[in-house]
Specification:
By secondary structure, this protein is α/β, with parallel strands linked by helices. The protein is 44% helix and 15% strand. It has helices at residues 5-13, 20-31, 37-50, 54-65, 93-103, 122-127, 138-148, 161-171, 179-192, 213-229, 251-262, 268-284, 292-304, 307-318, 352-364, 406-416, and strands at 81-85, 108-112, 150-154, 197-204, 233-240, 248-249, 335-339, 345-350, 378-381, 388-389, 396-400, 417-420, 430-435. Helix 10 links the parallel strand 4 and strand 5 (233-240). Helix 1 runs parallel beside helix 3 (37-50) and helix 5 (93-103) crosses helix 12 (268-284). The radius of gyration is 22 Å and the shape is globular. The N and C termini lie far apart (44 Å).
Length: 440
Protein backbone atom coordinates (compact mmCIF):
# COMPACT_ATOMS: atom_id res chain seq x y z
CA UNK A 1 0.00 0.00 0.00
CA UNK A 2 1.35 3.41 -0.98
CA UNK A 3 2.31 5.68 1.91
CA UNK A 4 1.21 9.27 1.24
CA UNK A 5 2.27 12.29 3.25
CA UNK A 6 -1.31 13.65 3.24
CA UNK A 7 -2.52 10.56 5.09
CA UNK A 8 0.35 10.75 7.57
CA UNK A 9 -0.44 14.40 8.36
CA UNK A 10 -4.08 13.50 9.01
CA UNK A 11 -3.06 10.56 11.17
CA UNK A 12 -0.70 12.62 13.31
CA UNK A 13 -3.20 15.49 13.49
CA UNK A 14 -5.63 13.05 15.16
CA UNK A 15 -2.95 12.10 17.67
CA UNK A 16 -2.27 8.63 16.27
CA UNK A 17 1.20 7.09 16.29
CA UNK A 18 3.12 6.69 13.04
CA UNK A 19 4.78 3.36 12.27
CA UNK A 20 8.42 2.75 11.44
CA UNK A 21 7.82 2.27 7.70
CA UNK A 22 5.70 5.42 7.55
CA UNK A 23 8.40 7.52 9.23
CA UNK A 24 11.15 5.94 7.12
CA UNK A 25 9.31 6.78 3.90
CA UNK A 26 8.47 10.32 5.08
CA UNK A 27 12.09 11.13 5.99
CA UNK A 28 13.47 9.49 2.84
CA UNK A 29 11.06 11.33 0.52
CA UNK A 30 11.50 14.70 2.24
CA UNK A 31 15.31 14.42 2.07
CA UNK A 32 15.05 13.57 -1.64
CA UNK A 33 12.77 16.57 -2.32
CA UNK A 34 9.68 14.48 -3.09
CA UNK A 35 7.76 16.07 -0.19
CA UNK A 36 7.44 19.86 -0.38
CA UNK A 37 8.21 22.13 2.58
CA UNK A 38 4.59 23.17 3.03
CA UNK A 39 3.49 19.59 3.66
CA UNK A 40 6.38 18.84 5.99
CA UNK A 41 5.62 22.09 7.83
CA UNK A 42 2.09 20.79 8.46
CA UNK A 43 3.54 17.53 9.78
CA UNK A 44 5.96 19.34 12.09
CA UNK A 45 3.14 21.46 13.50
CA UNK A 46 1.02 18.34 14.04
CA UNK A 47 3.94 16.79 15.94
CA UNK A 48 4.34 20.00 17.94
CA UNK A 49 0.71 19.80 19.09
CA UNK A 50 0.30 16.02 19.43
CA UNK A 51 3.81 14.93 20.46
CA UNK A 52 5.34 11.54 19.64
CA UNK A 53 5.67 8.26 21.51
CA UNK A 54 9.13 7.02 22.50
CA UNK A 55 8.95 4.49 19.66
CA UNK A 56 7.99 7.16 17.10
CA UNK A 57 10.79 9.45 18.28
CA UNK A 58 13.28 6.59 18.00
CA UNK A 59 12.06 5.71 14.49
CA UNK A 60 12.49 9.37 13.50
CA UNK A 61 15.96 9.46 15.06
CA UNK A 62 17.15 6.36 13.22
CA UNK A 63 15.58 7.47 9.92
CA UNK A 64 17.46 10.78 10.10
CA UNK A 65 20.68 8.99 11.08
CA UNK A 66 20.26 6.74 8.03
CA UNK A 67 19.44 9.62 5.65
CA UNK A 68 23.14 10.01 4.83
CA UNK A 69 26.41 8.35 5.67
CA UNK A 70 27.00 6.67 9.01
CA UNK A 71 30.57 6.88 10.28
CA UNK A 72 32.06 3.41 10.68
CA UNK A 73 34.36 3.38 13.71
CA UNK A 74 34.77 -0.41 13.84
CA UNK A 75 38.46 -0.12 12.93
CA UNK A 76 39.07 1.69 16.24
CA UNK A 77 39.23 -0.75 19.19
CA UNK A 78 37.25 -0.11 22.36
CA UNK A 79 33.92 1.48 23.28
CA UNK A 80 33.60 4.88 21.62
CA UNK A 81 31.98 7.46 23.92
CA UNK A 82 30.59 10.75 22.59
CA UNK A 83 29.39 13.88 24.38
CA UNK A 84 26.88 16.51 23.35
CA UNK A 85 25.98 19.86 24.88
CA UNK A 86 22.68 21.57 24.15
CA UNK A 87 24.57 24.88 23.90
CA UNK A 88 25.46 27.73 26.21
CA UNK A 89 27.68 30.72 26.91
CA UNK A 90 31.33 30.07 27.76
CA UNK A 91 30.89 26.31 27.35
CA UNK A 92 34.29 24.94 26.41
CA UNK A 93 33.98 21.56 28.16
CA UNK A 94 34.66 19.55 24.97
CA UNK A 95 38.17 21.04 24.80
CA UNK A 96 38.89 19.44 28.18
CA UNK A 97 36.88 16.23 27.98
CA UNK A 98 38.18 14.83 24.70
CA UNK A 99 41.91 14.85 25.63
CA UNK A 100 41.15 13.69 29.18
CA UNK A 101 39.24 10.64 27.96
CA UNK A 102 41.88 9.91 25.32
CA UNK A 103 44.57 10.00 28.02
CA UNK A 104 42.50 7.42 29.91
CA UNK A 105 42.37 5.14 26.86
CA UNK A 106 38.76 5.94 25.89
CA UNK A 107 38.42 6.85 22.17
CA UNK A 108 36.23 9.89 21.51
CA UNK A 109 35.09 10.64 17.94
CA UNK A 110 33.44 14.06 18.11
CA UNK A 111 31.74 16.14 15.45
CA UNK A 112 31.05 19.68 16.62
CA UNK A 113 29.26 22.73 15.35
CA UNK A 114 29.97 26.41 14.84
CA UNK A 115 28.49 29.19 16.93
CA UNK A 116 25.38 31.10 15.89
CA UNK A 117 23.64 33.84 17.85
CA UNK A 118 24.55 33.92 21.55
CA UNK A 119 25.89 30.35 21.74
CA UNK A 120 29.51 29.52 21.00
CA UNK A 121 30.73 26.69 18.79
CA UNK A 122 33.55 24.24 19.56
CA UNK A 123 34.78 24.37 15.95
CA UNK A 124 35.31 28.15 16.22
CA UNK A 125 37.26 27.71 19.45
CA UNK A 126 39.51 25.07 17.90
CA UNK A 127 40.08 27.18 14.78
CA UNK A 128 41.30 30.06 16.96
CA UNK A 129 44.43 27.92 17.42
CA UNK A 130 46.74 28.88 14.52
CA UNK A 131 46.77 26.32 11.73
CA UNK A 132 44.03 24.01 13.06
CA UNK A 133 41.79 22.51 10.34
CA UNK A 134 38.31 21.37 11.34
CA UNK A 135 37.11 20.29 7.91
CA UNK A 136 38.45 16.72 7.74
CA UNK A 137 37.75 13.94 5.28
CA UNK A 138 36.51 10.66 6.71
CA UNK A 139 39.96 9.17 6.11
CA UNK A 140 41.65 12.02 8.00
CA UNK A 141 39.05 11.81 10.77
CA UNK A 142 39.77 8.11 11.35
CA UNK A 143 43.54 8.60 11.05
CA UNK A 144 43.60 11.29 13.75
CA UNK A 145 41.31 9.23 15.98
CA UNK A 146 43.58 6.22 15.64
CA UNK A 147 46.81 8.17 16.20
CA UNK A 148 45.72 10.48 19.01
CA UNK A 149 42.82 8.69 20.69
CA UNK A 150 40.33 11.47 20.00
CA UNK A 151 39.25 13.70 17.16
CA UNK A 152 37.02 16.76 17.03
CA UNK A 153 35.98 18.07 13.64
CA UNK A 154 33.20 19.93 11.85
CA UNK A 155 30.13 17.89 10.98
CA UNK A 156 30.17 16.74 7.36
CA UNK A 157 27.33 17.50 4.95
CA UNK A 158 26.81 13.78 4.44
CA UNK A 159 26.02 13.19 8.11
CA UNK A 160 22.26 13.12 8.87
CA UNK A 161 21.25 15.49 6.02
CA UNK A 162 17.57 14.98 6.87
CA UNK A 163 18.15 16.55 10.26
CA UNK A 164 19.83 19.58 8.72
CA UNK A 165 16.94 20.06 6.32
CA UNK A 166 14.27 19.53 8.97
CA UNK A 167 15.99 21.85 11.45
CA UNK A 168 16.07 24.68 8.90
CA UNK A 169 12.34 24.19 8.37
CA UNK A 170 11.59 24.05 12.11
CA UNK A 171 13.49 27.30 12.54
CA UNK A 172 11.03 29.20 10.33
CA UNK A 173 7.79 27.41 11.26
CA UNK A 174 7.70 27.90 15.03
CA UNK A 175 8.34 24.22 15.77
CA UNK A 176 11.85 24.33 17.25
CA UNK A 177 10.63 23.92 20.85
CA UNK A 178 9.25 20.38 20.54
CA UNK A 179 10.89 17.85 22.87
CA UNK A 180 10.58 14.88 20.44
CA UNK A 181 11.99 16.97 17.57
CA UNK A 182 14.87 18.34 19.67
CA UNK A 183 15.71 14.91 21.06
CA UNK A 184 15.63 13.15 17.69
CA UNK A 185 17.73 15.91 16.10
CA UNK A 186 20.49 15.59 18.70
CA UNK A 187 20.48 11.81 18.91
CA UNK A 188 20.39 11.26 15.13
CA UNK A 189 23.73 13.07 14.77
CA UNK A 190 25.30 11.18 17.67
CA UNK A 191 24.21 7.81 16.25
CA UNK A 192 25.31 8.72 12.72
CA UNK A 193 28.70 9.73 14.17
CA UNK A 194 29.27 6.13 15.25
CA UNK A 195 29.04 6.55 19.03
CA UNK A 196 28.60 3.42 21.16
CA UNK A 197 27.76 5.38 24.32
CA UNK A 198 26.56 8.96 24.72
CA UNK A 199 26.81 11.53 27.53
CA UNK A 200 24.58 14.59 27.28
CA UNK A 201 25.16 17.97 28.89
CA UNK A 202 21.65 19.45 29.02
CA UNK A 203 21.86 23.15 29.83
CA UNK A 204 19.18 24.82 31.93
CA UNK A 205 18.58 28.53 32.61
CA UNK A 206 18.68 31.99 31.06
CA UNK A 207 21.47 31.09 28.64
CA UNK A 208 19.98 27.78 27.55
CA UNK A 209 17.23 26.64 25.23
CA UNK A 210 15.57 24.79 28.12
CA UNK A 211 14.71 27.53 30.59
CA UNK A 212 13.50 25.38 33.49
CA UNK A 213 14.80 22.32 35.30
CA UNK A 214 11.60 20.42 34.51
CA UNK A 215 11.93 21.01 30.76
CA UNK A 216 15.64 20.11 30.85
CA UNK A 217 14.84 16.86 32.69
CA UNK A 218 12.10 16.04 30.18
CA UNK A 219 14.51 16.47 27.29
CA UNK A 220 17.27 14.49 29.03
CA UNK A 221 14.94 11.61 29.88
CA UNK A 222 13.56 11.53 26.33
CA UNK A 223 17.07 11.26 24.85
CA UNK A 224 18.04 8.54 27.32
CA UNK A 225 14.95 6.54 26.28
CA UNK A 226 15.86 7.02 22.61
CA UNK A 227 19.37 5.82 23.38
CA UNK A 228 18.05 2.70 25.07
CA UNK A 229 15.68 1.85 22.22
CA UNK A 230 18.46 2.50 19.68
CA UNK A 231 20.92 0.30 21.59
CA UNK A 232 23.11 3.20 22.82
CA UNK A 233 23.63 3.45 26.56
CA UNK A 234 23.14 7.12 27.45
CA UNK A 235 23.52 9.35 30.52
CA UNK A 236 22.74 13.03 31.05
CA UNK A 237 24.13 15.78 33.26
CA UNK A 238 21.79 18.74 33.70
CA UNK A 239 23.92 21.83 34.25
CA UNK A 240 23.22 25.43 35.21
CA UNK A 241 23.36 28.11 32.55
CA UNK A 242 21.98 31.00 34.62
CA UNK A 243 25.44 32.54 34.30
CA UNK A 244 28.31 31.99 31.83
CA UNK A 245 30.39 28.87 32.41
CA UNK A 246 33.82 29.86 33.68
CA UNK A 247 35.36 33.31 33.37
CA UNK A 248 35.95 33.54 29.62
CA UNK A 249 33.48 34.04 26.76
CA UNK A 250 35.24 34.18 23.38
CA UNK A 251 37.14 31.73 21.25
CA UNK A 252 40.88 31.98 21.99
CA UNK A 253 40.02 33.11 25.53
CA UNK A 254 38.06 29.90 26.08
CA UNK A 255 40.96 27.83 24.74
CA UNK A 256 43.13 29.55 27.37
CA UNK A 257 40.65 28.62 30.11
CA UNK A 258 40.42 25.00 28.91
CA UNK A 259 44.23 24.72 28.97
CA UNK A 260 44.20 25.95 32.59
CA UNK A 261 42.04 22.94 33.54
CA UNK A 262 44.23 20.58 31.51
CA UNK A 263 47.16 21.88 33.56
CA UNK A 264 45.35 20.91 36.76
CA UNK A 265 43.86 24.29 37.67
CA UNK A 266 40.97 26.28 36.28
CA UNK A 267 37.88 28.15 37.47
CA UNK A 268 35.92 26.12 40.03
CA UNK A 269 32.48 25.86 38.37
CA UNK A 270 33.96 25.06 34.97
CA UNK A 271 36.30 22.45 36.41
CA UNK A 272 33.44 20.91 38.42
CA UNK A 273 31.28 20.44 35.33
CA UNK A 274 34.20 19.01 33.33
CA UNK A 275 34.80 16.49 36.12
CA UNK A 276 31.11 15.47 36.30
CA UNK A 277 30.90 14.89 32.54
CA UNK A 278 34.24 13.07 32.42
CA UNK A 279 33.11 10.75 35.23
CA UNK A 280 29.99 9.80 33.29
CA UNK A 281 31.96 9.24 30.07
CA UNK A 282 34.57 7.10 31.81
CA UNK A 283 31.95 5.00 33.58
CA UNK A 284 30.15 4.32 30.29
CA UNK A 285 33.38 3.18 28.65
CA UNK A 286 35.02 -0.25 28.81
CA UNK A 287 37.67 1.12 31.21
CA UNK A 288 36.05 -0.43 34.25
CA UNK A 289 35.57 1.81 37.29
CA UNK A 290 34.11 0.40 40.50
CA UNK A 291 32.64 3.74 41.55
CA UNK A 292 32.60 7.49 40.95
CA UNK A 293 35.48 8.09 43.37
CA UNK A 294 37.75 5.79 41.36
CA UNK A 295 36.71 7.55 38.14
CA UNK A 296 37.51 10.95 39.66
CA UNK A 297 40.87 9.70 40.88
CA UNK A 298 41.84 8.49 37.41
CA UNK A 299 40.76 11.77 35.82
CA UNK A 300 42.69 13.84 38.37
CA UNK A 301 45.78 11.71 37.66
CA UNK A 302 45.88 12.48 33.91
CA UNK A 303 45.37 16.18 34.65
CA UNK A 304 48.15 16.17 37.23
CA UNK A 305 50.74 14.24 35.22
CA UNK A 306 50.23 16.29 32.05
CA UNK A 307 49.09 13.41 29.84
CA UNK A 308 45.70 15.02 29.09
CA UNK A 309 47.37 18.26 27.96
CA UNK A 310 49.82 16.12 25.97
CA UNK A 311 46.90 14.54 24.11
CA UNK A 312 45.56 18.00 23.27
CA UNK A 313 48.99 18.96 21.89
CA UNK A 314 49.07 15.74 19.83
CA UNK A 315 45.65 16.52 18.39
CA UNK A 316 46.55 20.10 17.47
CA UNK A 317 49.64 18.87 15.61
CA UNK A 318 47.67 16.11 13.88
CA UNK A 319 45.22 18.62 12.35
CA UNK A 320 47.93 21.06 11.22
CA UNK A 321 47.94 23.42 14.20
CA UNK A 322 50.71 25.06 16.20
CA UNK A 323 50.90 23.14 19.50
CA UNK A 324 53.27 25.77 20.92
CA UNK A 325 50.30 28.15 20.98
CA UNK A 326 48.94 26.15 23.95
CA UNK A 327 51.86 27.40 26.07
CA UNK A 328 50.34 30.89 25.93
CA UNK A 329 46.96 30.66 24.14
CA UNK A 330 46.18 34.38 23.97
CA UNK A 331 45.50 36.41 20.85
CA UNK A 332 45.80 40.14 21.72
CA UNK A 333 42.91 42.43 20.82
CA UNK A 334 43.48 46.06 19.84
CA UNK A 335 40.86 47.46 22.18
CA UNK A 336 39.67 46.60 25.66
CA UNK A 337 37.23 48.24 28.03
CA UNK A 338 36.36 47.72 31.68
CA UNK A 339 32.66 47.36 32.44
CA UNK A 340 31.36 48.66 35.77
CA UNK A 341 28.09 47.65 37.47
CA UNK A 342 25.03 49.92 37.38
CA UNK A 343 24.77 49.86 41.20
CA UNK A 344 26.41 48.53 44.35
CA UNK A 345 25.23 45.31 45.96
CA UNK A 346 25.14 41.60 45.19
CA UNK A 347 24.96 40.17 41.69
CA UNK A 348 21.59 38.44 42.00
CA UNK A 349 20.76 37.19 38.52
CA UNK A 350 22.10 37.23 34.99
CA UNK A 351 20.54 37.20 31.55
CA UNK A 352 23.19 34.83 30.24
CA UNK A 353 21.95 34.93 26.66
CA UNK A 354 22.53 38.70 26.70
CA UNK A 355 26.13 38.17 27.85
CA UNK A 356 26.61 35.82 24.91
CA UNK A 357 25.04 38.39 22.61
CA UNK A 358 27.46 41.05 23.89
CA UNK A 359 30.40 38.77 23.08
CA UNK A 360 28.93 38.13 19.65
CA UNK A 361 28.65 41.88 18.99
CA UNK A 362 32.37 42.24 19.82
CA UNK A 363 33.15 39.72 17.07
CA UNK A 364 33.23 36.45 19.02
CA UNK A 365 30.04 35.11 17.42
CA UNK A 366 27.79 35.25 14.40
CA UNK A 367 24.44 36.83 13.62
CA UNK A 368 24.44 35.15 10.20
CA UNK A 369 26.10 31.92 9.14
CA UNK A 370 28.59 33.68 6.87
CA UNK A 371 29.81 36.20 9.49
CA UNK A 372 33.57 36.06 10.15
CA UNK A 373 34.68 35.24 13.70
CA UNK A 374 37.35 37.33 15.43
CA UNK A 375 39.26 34.84 17.63
CA UNK A 376 40.60 37.63 19.87
CA UNK A 377 37.18 39.09 20.71
CA UNK A 378 35.39 38.23 23.91
CA UNK A 379 34.64 38.96 27.54
CA UNK A 380 36.52 38.19 30.73
CA UNK A 381 33.98 37.87 33.56
CA UNK A 382 35.40 39.20 36.83
CA UNK A 383 32.38 38.69 39.12
CA UNK A 384 30.01 35.75 39.47
CA UNK A 385 26.52 35.53 40.93
CA UNK A 386 26.59 36.09 44.68
CA UNK A 387 29.61 38.39 44.57
CA UNK A 388 29.30 41.85 46.11
CA UNK A 389 30.19 44.55 43.59
CA UNK A 390 30.99 48.25 43.86
CA UNK A 391 30.91 51.15 41.44
CA UNK A 392 34.72 51.40 41.61
CA UNK A 393 35.48 47.82 40.51
CA UNK A 394 34.76 46.37 37.04
CA UNK A 395 32.62 43.26 36.72
CA UNK A 396 34.03 42.37 33.28
CA UNK A 397 36.52 43.37 30.60
CA UNK A 398 35.60 43.56 26.91
CA UNK A 399 38.09 42.69 24.15
CA UNK A 400 37.67 43.45 20.45
CA UNK A 401 39.40 44.60 17.28
CA UNK A 402 36.37 46.75 16.36
CA UNK A 403 36.27 49.78 18.63
CA UNK A 404 32.81 50.75 17.41
CA UNK A 405 31.29 47.60 18.95
CA UNK A 406 32.29 48.52 22.53
CA UNK A 407 29.37 50.83 23.49
CA UNK A 408 26.64 48.35 22.51
CA UNK A 409 28.45 45.42 24.10
CA UNK A 410 28.99 47.41 27.30
CA UNK A 411 25.32 48.35 27.45
CA UNK A 412 24.18 44.76 26.87
CA UNK A 413 26.49 43.48 29.59
CA UNK A 414 25.54 46.10 32.20
CA UNK A 415 21.85 45.45 31.58
CA UNK A 416 22.33 41.66 31.79
CA UNK A 417 22.92 41.70 35.56
CA UNK A 418 20.41 42.37 38.33
CA UNK A 419 21.94 43.79 41.52
CA UNK A 420 20.21 43.78 44.92
CA UNK A 421 20.97 44.25 48.61
CA UNK A 422 20.42 40.59 49.47
CA UNK A 423 22.92 37.88 48.66
CA UNK A 424 21.31 35.16 46.52
CA UNK A 425 21.45 31.49 47.38
CA UNK A 426 24.33 29.79 45.58
CA UNK A 427 23.26 27.40 42.82
CA UNK A 428 25.50 24.43 41.95
CA UNK A 429 26.69 24.05 38.37
CA UNK A 430 25.61 20.38 38.28
CA UNK A 431 21.87 20.31 38.94
CA UNK A 432 21.15 16.63 38.38
CA UNK A 433 22.63 13.46 36.85
CA UNK A 434 20.27 11.08 35.07
CA UNK A 435 21.39 7.60 34.09
CA UNK A 436 19.58 4.86 32.23
CA UNK A 437 17.44 2.89 34.67
CA UNK A 438 18.55 4.94 37.67
CA UNK A 439 15.40 7.00 37.99
CA UNK A 440 17.52 9.96 38.99
Amino acid sequence: MEIRINDLIEKKKRGEALGKEEIDVMVRDYTAGAIPDYQMSAMLMAIWFQGMTDEETTYLTLAMADSGDRLDLSSIPGIKVDKHSTGGVGDKTTLVLTPVLAALGVPVAKMSGRGLGFTGGTVDKLESIPGVRSELSEEEFLRVLGEVGFVDAAQTKELAPADKKLYALRDVTGTVDSIPLIASSIMSKKIASGADRIVLDVKCGSGAFMGTLDSAKELAEQMIRIGRLAGRKTAAVISDMDQPLGRMVGNSMEVEEAVEVLKGGGEERFRTLCMALAVEMLQLSDRRCDNEDEARSRIEAVLKDGSALGKFRDFVRAVGGDANFLDDPVIPAKYKKDVYPVAEGYLTSCNTAQVGLAASRLGAGRSKKDDVIDPAAGICILAKLGDRVSLESPIAVLYTNKEETLPEAESLLREAYIISDEKPEEKPVVLEVIREGSGK
